[in-house]
Automatic annotation (TrEMBL):
Protein name: NAD(P)-dependent oxidoreductase
Keywords: NAD
InterPro entries for this protein: Epimerase_deHydtase (IPR001509), NAD(P)-bd_dom_sf (IPR036291)
Domain NAD-dependent epimerase/dehydratase positions: 103-216
Record's keyword annotation contains NAD: yes
UniProt KW NAD keyword: yes
One Pfam match: Epimerase
Amino acid sequence: MPQSPTPGRLFCFGLGFSATALARRLLDPGWQVAGTCRTAEKAAALRAQGIEAHVFNPDQPLERGTLAGTTHLLDSVPPTAEGDRVLAALTPDIVALPNLRWVGYLSTTGVYGNKDGGWVDESAPVQPATERGKARAVAEAQWMALHDAHGLPVHRFRLPGIYGPGRSALDQMRAGTARRVDKKGQVFSRIHIHDLGSALVASMNRPNPGAIYNVADDHPCPSPDVVTYAAELLGLEPPPLVPFEQAELSPMATSFYGENKRISNARIKAELGVTLRYPSYREGLADQLAAERQV
């Protein structure tokens, strides 16, 4: 696990699965950790964990001074077609922060579009094929415009599917929602939530404003392989293999299968010194189950 950066104040826009995991990770080393969520109920739950949580949505802007003292800022709020919601509301406040040392924007590998199963590194052109990917590309460009114009220390992290306890094939198997959809030649990349946190912390330790990082594990593979392994770990029968053409997926799920690529993680290893705890889904799922059984 990379050493935590010198303590400061982390502010996370969008305390969802990824940002909350990072926030919890930095609480112990003595950081001040704050951020936003969309409801008062979630804000109360986060405050009970020691995170200074604020409600932020189109109907409830942040109070003046909320960002004061922020040294590190993470944005994981999904954009609209027009771009980043945080920047739409708070660009002047963010640009004016005097002690900002690091900004992380959580984007998606969807900005690369379809590569027919080929490997993709950070030098690949941005060619999003979905509306979701196009919106992320717009938001990335907006953050980089602030980097270029104001020297904002922006780092872009392009993420594939994120999994971990509470959001894994093990949880889907138990809930009865796991599916094995078979599309010939289709592979997906993924990253465990712990290893995503390690990459973010490593970047905080070695800021390189303007940098792009793919954060993925070593083993892109077909989605049915992951579900089959989760079923094996649980001693359950895997769900039947369903041909893609017969799967009757939602429009969003169908769009994921329209992109086929393998994400290279060479840069986070070479530049940030990241060592993955979970180089594939096998280690990630096995460790999750072992930890559950120890409780």
